[in-house]
């Protein structure tokens, strides 16, 4: 049985004092920590070391929101895998929709040229090379969903992200399905929509690798996850947790999502 995982993506939010307060509040809210659930927080780069200190000794793990594929060198403004490991990171988010669609150069007509699958693939390989577990984000835009392109987009992003990645690393990767139209909008995929996308990704991984790799891979749902909908989403057969945005900025709300994952896990374990 796959172990549930709930990760909080703080994005470009908090200052140093607020970040520490949030981390300490989360430690308190998750004491005792629900058994059988992995938890991580992903603060902005400048606060990683401080948050690492705030969660030290707890079961909360540290993640980063991005990284570059080179180890060091003349790459102004970038952060490498060894740097992230040095401050205590265990995870790194890669290919978030905001990196793909929001942050980048603006072309004719206002189109943003962000990160492509080839770049994200290089980052994923570098994450493993430096002892980090990648959280690979995939998902379709509203226009792509409305034109029935969801599976085509997921197929391209998953194949591109895992190109040349061996099965042993693929099984350890965390994949987060985040429909772009549900991120920060207050809208979220229905449990049935989330399950459909997650099941497609798992079948694709089985095609690319084998049934064992597909069975081990943890798939998270992200997109306006809240305490009120977490249990129903995480309770789907192929949804193994959540990548949480806005709700991760409130210790009580984030803890409630983690606790919901714990209850789902306890129920599933008891029924086996």
Short description:
The protein is of the alpha/beta class and 272 residues long.
Walk me through this protein's architecture.
This protein has 272 residues and is an alpha/beta fold. It has one domain (5-271): Aldolase class I (TIM Barrel, Alpha-Beta Barrel). Helices cover 46% and strands 16% of the residues. The protein is built from twelve helices and ten strands. Strands 9-8-7-4-3-2-1-10 form an eight-stranded parallel sheet. It has a two-stranded antiparallel ribbon with strand order 5-6. Helix 1 (16-29) runs parallel beside helix 2 (48-55), helix 5 (117-129) crosses helix 7 and helix 7 crosses helix 9 (191-208). The longest helix has 21 residues, at 251-271. The chain starts with a strand and ends with a helix. The mean pLDDT is 94.
SSE blueprint and pairings:
Elements: E1 5-9, H1 16-29, E2 38-42, H2 48-55, E3 60-64, H3 81-86, E4 89-94, H4 97-102, E5 105-106, E6 112-113, H5 117-129, E7 133-138, H6 142-146, H7 150-162, H8 167-172, E8 174-177, H9 191-208, H10 211-216, E9 218-221, H11 227-234, E10 241-244, H12 251-271
Helix pairs in contact: 1-2, 1-12, 5-7, 7-9, 11-12
Sheet having the most strands: 8 strands, parallel
The number of domains is: 1
Strand order of the largest sheet: 9-8-7-4-3-2-1-10
CATH level 4 superfamily: Aldolase class I
SSE-based structural type? alpha/beta
Under the CATH scheme, which class?
A: Alpha Beta
Helix content: 40-55%
């Amino acid at each position: 049985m796959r172990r549930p995982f709930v990760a909080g993506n703080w994005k470009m939010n908090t200052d140093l004092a607020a970040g520490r307060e949030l981390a300490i509040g989360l430690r308190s809210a998750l004491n005792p920590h629900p058994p059988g659930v992995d938890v991580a927080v992903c603060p902005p780069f400048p606060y990683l070391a401080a948050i690492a200190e705030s969660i030290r000794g707890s079961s909360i793990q540290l993640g980063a929101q991005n990284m570059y594929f080179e180890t060091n060198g003349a790459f102004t403004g970038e952060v490498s895998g060894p740097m992230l490991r040095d401050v205590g990171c265990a995870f790194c988010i890669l290919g978030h929709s905001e990196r793909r669609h929001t942050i980048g150069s603006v072309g004719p007509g206002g189109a943003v040229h962000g990160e492509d699958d080839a770049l994200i693939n290089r980052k994923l390989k570098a994450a493993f090379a430096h002892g980090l577990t990648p959280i690979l984000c995939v998902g379709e835009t509203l226009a792509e969903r409305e034109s029935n392109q969801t599976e085509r987009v997921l197929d391209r992003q998953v194949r591109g992200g895992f190109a040349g990645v061996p099965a042993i690393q693929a099984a350890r990767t965390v994949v987060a399905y985040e429909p772009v139209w549900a991120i920060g909008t207050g809208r979220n995929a229905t449990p049935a929509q989330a399950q459909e996308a997650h099941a497609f990704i798992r079948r694709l991984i089985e095609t690319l690798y084998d049934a064992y790799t597909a069975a081990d891979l943890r798939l998270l749902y992200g997109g306006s996850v809240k305490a009120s909908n977490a249990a129903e989403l995480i309770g789907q057969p192929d949804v193994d947790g959540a990548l949480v945005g806005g709700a991760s900025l409130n210790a009580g709300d984030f803890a409630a999502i983690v606790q919901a994952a714990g209850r789902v896990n306890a129920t599933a374990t008891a029924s086996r």
